[in-house]
Design a protein that fits this description.
The complex is a heterodimer. Chain A is of the alpha+beta class. Chain A contains 8 helices and 10 strands. In chain A, 36% of the residues are buried. In chain B, strands 1, 2, 3, 4 and 5 form a 5-stranded antiparallel sheet that branches. The longest helix of chain B is centred in the C-terminal third of the chain and has 17 residues. The chains are: A alpha+beta, B alpha+beta. The complex binds adenosine-5'-diphosphate (ADP) and magnesium ion.
Chain lengths: 270, 192
């Protein structure tokens, strides 16, 4: 047992074993892969390197094929989004066979974290003062920007497949937005400020049907409710903004009603 | 000093990257004949600077080429020709040479890159280039490169005409940055 107590050091992908002045930093470790912060071409250009390591539980040939196909698919979606003006990181380099993809580093925090900073850590049943209710604008604005970003994505015919507040980043605005009365107030405002950048297209597909788009929104709605129960009632602003983003968006929102209904039936049946 | 040794992130010491930029080259025809004749003294990638957007663009191609060699997946004969191919968004090698290599009648400004030279020192490379390339050495800076860039050509090569994001940008400097971003991505996705 003691032999296993030491923290597990993951083997770096080959590409990160070559020399660079700044060592790579492991930022996230998921079921499918790892995300490193590293540099591209020059020490001053940070990049995010996503690495899908070989899976021992899969047949090696199948695993290699799957990894390659997924990296390629993710890169293609990012390329398409960039050209269409959907806010996503651009791809710098990739080696699908080796299982990695390097993209622009988004120098911000996941939306989840920004919202949690805004909400603070008071218990849920705490009385909310009038002042707080009156000044929800920054959070409401963030909800609208999320709706805009998802709308832009769907307009181009891409379904994300795993929309959560962890799979969107907040890229802070240049400055000037930080004029809060108290500094704590200013900090909170800052936490929900910034451009929304969509990330993690590992499960993305192409579709323009109301059904697929509505399911994508439903996934986000459920994820939002469970991650941010205290802000659940504000989710409607995401949908309101989404509605304005392309011609078929209103019919997607109507479809969302059906999807919710099915979801409820399913959960009642257990 | 016209030759620059460039440190690229995660390019190992076995692949020292040396580069030089020559303006108004008068002997492009001779240079091309030496390349075609596989003269061993011409173990460099000769790039037509009008097809290059920036330093980052050029070095991205170098990085791809080196990485291809390191993983044993070269699709051309050596790392130098791989640099030329890496600049292209397609796998058509002849086309890549036409567009990014040198063309006697057209090429004026030439960037010479050597990832993984067989020569021991940058000085020796500089010496050889001085003897062989008839042109004015200038620094390999974004500023100098931008004076040579032929944007209408690049827009065509990288399929940037009619791209929605570019149509939406009014500021010229912002548009150039965005084009560079899309170009680098197209290179990364070559053949996909
Ligand atoms: N381009 C990026 N810039 C900065 N951080 C990123 C970037 N991409 C991912 N991350 C960080 O890494 C985490 C995991 O990346 P993600 O693509 O979501 O992979 P996973 O499939 O493991 O969820 C994200 O939640 C985010 O915090
Ligand atoms: Mg994720």
């Amino acid at each position: 047992m003691a032999a296993h107590a030491a923290p597990v050091e993951f083997a770096l992908p080959q590409v990160l074993t070559y020399p660079a002045p700044t060592p790579p930093i492991l930022v996230a470790q998921g079921a499918e892969g790892r995300l490193y912060k590293t540099t591209y071409i020059t020490p001053s250009l940070p990049c995010a390197l996503k690495y899908r390591s070989p899976k021992q539980y899969r047949h090696p040939i199948l695993d290699a094929r799957l990894t390659k196909a997924r990296i390629q698919a993710e890169a293609k979606v990012l390329d398409r989004c960039c050209r269409e003006g959907v806010p996503v990181p651009a791809v710098y380099a990739l080696d699908a066979t080796a299982g990695w993809l390097a993209m622009e580093w988004v120098d911000g925090v996941p939306v989840r974290q920004g919202i949690n900073v805004w909400l603070g850590d008071r218990p849920e049943d705490d009385a909310i003062s009038d002042a707080e209710v009156a000044d929800e604008t920054p959070l409401v604005d963030l909800m609208k920007r999320i709706g805009d970003a998802v709308g832009a994505l769907h307009r181009t015919g891409v379904i994300h497949g795993d929309l959560t507040t962890s799979n969107m980043m907040l890229l802070p605005w240049a400055d000037g937005q930080s004029n809060g009365a108290s500094s704590e107030d200013g900090e909170k405002k800052k936490a929900v400020g910034g451009d929304v950048i969509l990330i993690d297209f590992g499960l993305a597909t192409q579709s323009v049907t109301d059904e697929d788009r509505a399911v994508d929104l439903y996934v986000l709605e459920r994820a939002f409710a469970s991650t941010h129960p205290r802000a659940e009632r504000l989710f409607t602003h995401v949908l309101e903004a989404y509605k304005q983003t392309f011609k078929k968006a209103p019919s997607v929102i109507r479809k969302l009603e059906d999807v919710r209904m099915r979801g409820r039936k399913k959960s009642m049946l257990g | 000093m016209s030759l620059e040794t460039i440190q690229i992130e995660r390019v190992p010491g076995t692949h020292r990257v040396d580069a030089a930029f020559f303006r108004d080259v008068s002997n492009a025809e001779f240079l091309q004949s030496q390349l075609l004749g596989r003269n061993a003294d011409f173990e460099y990638a000769f790039i037509d600077a009008s097809s290059v957007a920036s330093r980052l663009h050029l070095l991205s191609a170098v990085y791809h080429a080196v990485n291809t060699q390191l993983t044993g997946t070269l699709t051309t004969t050596n790392v130098h020709s791989e640099v030329v191919l890496s600049l292209s968004p397609s796998n058509n090698i002849a086309e890549a040479y036409r567009r990014w290599g040198i063309t006697p009648a057209k090429t004026k400004d030439i960037i010479v890159v050597s990832p993984a030279s067989t020569l021991p020192t940058p000085d020796e490379i500089e010496q050889r280039l001085r003897e062989k390339v008839q042109g004015t050495p200038v620094p390999l800076s974004d500023e100098e490169i931008s004076k040579s860039t032929d944007w209408p050509k690049l827009r065509k090569y990288y399929g940037l005409n009619g791209v929605p994001i570019l149509a939406a940008i009014t500021d010229e400097a912002v548009r150039v940055k965005e084009m560079e971003r899309l170009i680098i991505m197209r290179m990364a996705l070559r053949g996909l």
